[in-house]
Amino acid sequence: MVLTILRSSILKALCGGAVAVAAMVASAGAAPSVWRIDPGASTILITFVVDGKPRQGEFGVFRGEATFDPAALSDADLRFEIETGSVDLDEPFATDFVKSIDWLFVEEHPVAVYELQRLEQIGEDRFRAEGMLTLRGRTHSVMGELTLNLDENTAAAVGEAGFDRKDFNVGVGFSTLFVEIGPKIGVSFDLKASKVE
Known about the structure:
Blueprint: H1 2-29, E1 33-37, E2 43-50, E3 53-59, E4 62-68, E5 77-83, E6 87-88, H2 92-99, E7 111-121, E8 126-135, E9 138-150, E10 154-164, E11 184-195
Antiparallel strand pairs: 1-4, 1-11, 2-3, 2-11, 3-6, 4-5, 5-7, 7-8, 8-9, 9-10, 10-11
């Protein structure tokens, strides 16, 4: 009787261990989830300083897709595209100025592209991101920080980044001789995404 109970216990333990190992192997071999940005539920803002006063604009057209697994940050991937001509400063003259050849030059460079290079966890839900931004035909590294919240099917990322406008030849040219422009351009974002895989 004791031997039968012992055998049964050992068998249950072995089966339980096998199931646990199988689950870990499946988890380890599973592909990271793919998330698609929902533009209708997201916002991207730029901020800059002109003649000592902060100005802000919003991009209305953008798209992006990310591959992300919290357990494998080195495999995280993101490509994000922004249509530069969709910028709006809620004032026609200022909007046209930012779209002009001296700023975003939207006629020649209608799309800005951000591609994630590295993601580092710096807190429970805080991350530092480094990526390459291509704007006005120039590509440079951009650093930022964000808060990321995930559930089974949705993700939310809120954060900010910044860059030197001269790295991208932004805010230079004849029209900028009449205004004093701050050296930095800030980008803040509130992005919502849905799982697609």
